[in-house]
Amino acid sequence: MSFADPQSITISGVTTPLPRVSVGARASDYQSADGLITLKASSSVGSRIRRVLRVDHKKVSADVFLPATNVAKSMSCYLVFDLPADGYTNAEAKAIFDGFRTQFGASSDALITKLLGGES
């Protein structure tokens, strides 16, 4: 089953709609009209269950060595749930995620800011 179509994402105060562009048995892709933002949701099932929600972002900016030349840049940000095939309920996994989200969201996302700065 897929998420609602379209999805949307707000980056730097700008909300971008992401209509579904691909759907498979265990994966769906949602993409902005300009192709610069993609949201992917997927699951794989085996001895472990892996659920992934991923955002890929692309932009064009000046090359640091050749400022007159524009180059494509990209980054990804994703959340992975890696669970054994049995032993954790969805409610238990969600409770662990809630604790994780509270941890990195505390103090105006200070932990994420420090992580992006290279701290561990």
How would you portray this structure in words?
This protein is an alpha+beta fold and about 120 residues long. The protein folds into 2 domains: about 1-85, MS2 Viral Coat Protein, CATH 3.30.380.10; about 90-120, no CATH class. Helix content is about 20%, strand content about 50%. It has 1 helix and 7 strands, in the order E-E-E-E-E-E-E-H. The strands form 2 sheets. A 5-stranded antiparallel sheet has the order 3-4-5-6-7, with no helix packed on it. A two-stranded antiparallel sheet has the order 1-2. The termini are far apart. The model has no long low-confidence stretch (mean pLDDT about 95).
The 3D shape can be described as globular
Radius of gyration: 17 Å
Our count of helices gives 1
CATH superfamily of the largest domain: MS2 Viral Coat Protein
| Secondary-structure element string | EEEEEEEH
- Profile the largest sheet: 5 strands, antiparallel
First-to-last CA distance = 37 Å
Structural class: alpha+beta
Enter the CATH topology name of the largest domain.
MS2 Viral Coat Protein
What's the CATH class of the largest domain, please? Answer: Alpha Beta
Strand arrangement, major sheet: 3-4-5-6-7
Chain-averaged pLDDT: 95
Helicity, in percent?
Answer: 10-25%
How many structural domains in the coordinates?
A: 2
Low-confidence runs (pLDDT<50, min 5 residues)? Answer: none
Secondary-structure arrangement, i.e. CATH architecture of the largest domain: 2-Layer Sandwich
What percent strand? over 45%
Strands, total number: 7
